[in-house]
Amino acid sequence: MDDGSFDKLAKGIALGRSRRALLKAALGLGAAGIAGGALGRDTEAARRGYPGPFPRGTEMGGPETCDPSTCYGCHQCVNGVCTDQPKTNCYDHTDQCLTSVCAPDGGCRYPFDCRVKEGCCPADQVCNADGACVCKPGTCCGVTCPECRICVDGACKDNPAGSCVQLPCKTAFCQSDGTCGYQDDCRTAAGCCSADQTCNADGVCVCKPGTCCGVTCPACQVCANGVCTDNAAGSCPNVACKAPFCEASGACGYQDDCRNGSDCCAADHVCNADGVCVCKPGTCCGVTCPGCQVCVNGACVGDSSKCGDHTDQCQASVCGIDGACSYPFDCAVRDGCCADGQLCDINTGQCDEKPV
Fold first, then answer.
1. DSSP label of 302
2. What is the mean predicted confidence (pLDDT) over 23-45?
3. What 8-state DSSP symbol labels residue 315?
4. Handedness of CA 227, 233, 234, 235 (dihedral sign)
5. What is the pLDDT of residue 68?
6. Distance CA 206, CA 23 (A)
7. What separation in angstroms does the CA of 340 have from each of 314, 315, 329, 351?
């Protein structure tokens, strides 16, 4: 073994190469096979993205200026220079728009790069010089519009019908801040208007002719077929012993009516068919007696007590049928009304001579 071969053997031992490979090298057997095997292991590990440490590489030709101890994986000593060989030593992922690069540790990395093939970017993007997809000018790429608007050729435009939630009996519009606003519109759905209304061409509910829609009647009246008519019984508040009626102004008026309630008439009255309290027969209701007379059970009778007391003058108080008071002599009203030698006849009230 010459000196050069010995130096290589010693260096191989220092770098930790397998004894079998060193032995083959020392004997001059399969040098190319040893180099190829080591390179193959490095290459497969690099393809998997294995971060190292990798088996040490071997130099392939050229002056010894490339250190195989630091040039391995998807790096390779070529003509004495440590050179990246990703296309040779890494997997091909261009079908996924990935490129192959050698990392400093010798492992393969597969970053996105739209330059590796056509169609890596969406239709609204282009591939720039750095291999990144960027938005095309005049497209909606990267444009975010408020809820009421939609992007068209890169600009936000009002689109309430397509962008806003559709509500029954409402129409959507875009407000100045781009949010959805709503206003009444009966054209958007059936049943938006009441039975006495119809939907006009502007989407507004309007009153049907001949209905009471929009008609306001006074307190005493009610609307019928669009016209206010008197309806005292149905429109006016109920008042006991009163009957409502409509005044000319349409306000509620009231008159006595004993039919509308209980105890509307006095005890000596009765409610007749017209709602008027009238006197009961056999009572003193409505009876007016003259002078000293009073009513008893519907008839006028004299009441001498109303004529005053004249007994001190031996006079009786008498109420006449005309209601006038008279005061005839009556010795029976008190003692001492007759002269000496006379007796008082209590039946006639006259003084008679005593019998001899």
1. E
2. 42
3. B
4. positive
5. 82
6. 108
7. 15, 19, 17, 10
